[in-house]
Every structure is written in structure tokens, then in C-alpha cells.
Amino acid sequence: MRCYGGSPTVKEGVSRSRALFHSRASAIRGFMTKHLIDLSHTVEHGLITYNGLPAPIICDYLSREQSRQHYAAGTEFQIGKIEMVANTGTYVDSPFHRYADGKDLSELPLESVAALDGVLIYAVGMHAIGIDAVREVIVKNHAVLFRTDWWLHWQTEEYWSGKHSFLTAEAAQYLVDEGAALVGIDSYNIDDTADLARPAHTILLGAEIPIVEHMCHLDQLPDAGFQFSAVPVKVKGFGTFPVRAFAVVERR
Questions:
Q1: What's the pTM?
Q2: What pLDDT does 30 receive?
Q3: Which of 228, 219, 215 shows the shortest CA–CA distance to 187?
């Protein structure tokens, strides 16, 4: 029997709570919208990513015209073929890229390259990015992305000139000591290519911190408050592979 004017029953209370929860959730969703920001270059036939390495060859293995003989009338498919070096486009380096006994792509935990909290470090105009650029930033368990805007020279001689922004050994060691999860840069190389010891690669990959190079559009990211992913194909015996790097940003 229902008593009007009295306290609500348990069932009524639960129903009201659920309705209030969904109402508030809908209101929050109305104010905050998720945006996906693509941070990757397009891989295409003839693309030169790293000066001295061959461009990918992209073609049909089975063309649509050839496939028609295998299927019913009006049905056709294309099967593509690509021949390329692993360092093509926007790519991730796993420890195996630098160390023979390091984890290869197939051994990278998804947690190390996907859905990471991100932080952006503004390094535009810096040639050697030193420890002062990162000292005041909380990097522990974060994907640390360096915005240099060098990607604006993409596919020009300037991009490969060696004048790009890079991370110093001291800055790389700081990121290791402070527990960074991943390090990315929108530049030609995270190292000074004149330094054949490649200290940034050596230090970061030695600590099992993946590196993402040749990124773009980092100018579209906030300083913090975003999630970052750069997941490669799960290839055994490879240390590097192209990724579709992207960030998830919530905005009002």
C-alpha cells in the first residue's frame, strides 16, 4: 500500500537516484565533448621519412580488375601490397630498436603505448632541448610530448638538414629518473644526428620507455589533460613500426 506524503520506498528511492544520476551525466556530457586529434603523417608511395632510407612502394597485389575472375558478377576486391623500411612515417621505437635483448614490438605492453595520460612540453625554437624544459613538469607515468613545430618542414630539405630540435642526454635521463611512460617528438630525430652515440635513444630505450618520432599537429593539444595512444602492429623481431598516433581531448 502506498502512503502519500510519507517517505519514499526503497524502490522509489533507487529509481529517483538513477534518474538523477543519468540527468547529471547527460548534463556533463552536454558541456564536455571528446575530440580525437590525429598526430600522424600519412604514409604514401614514394614518401621519404628519413634521408638515406628508401621510400615505401605501395601497389596492388590483387587489383580490382584481376579480382573479378574470382567472384560473382559485380563483386570485386583490392588487396594491397607495401614494401617499406620500419622507420616510415610517424613511428614508435621499442627497446629492440637499440638493444638486441630489448623488448620488440610484439612484447610491448599495450599499457606502454595506449591510453596514456599526456603532457605537452613547448620547445619551439629550441635546438638542444635541455633539462630546464622538463624540470618543472610532472611526467611520472605520462606520455611526454615535445612540441618543436619542426614537422612544418616535413618533406623538405630543411627537415633533413640536421638543424632539427632534439633531446639532450641530461633531459632524457631526467625523464627516466622521474618515471615518464613514453616520449614523443614532432621532429626529425629525438637525438642530435651528429652524435653517433644517440644518447636519447640509448637512455630512454634502455629504460624501456618507447619513443615516438615524426609526429605532427602537436599545436592542437593542451598542455595537459589529454590521453595519448600510438599503437604499432604486433610484429615479432621488429623494433620500430609506423603508428596512428592520436590524442583524446575533452573540450567544452
A1: 0.87
A2: 57
A3: 215
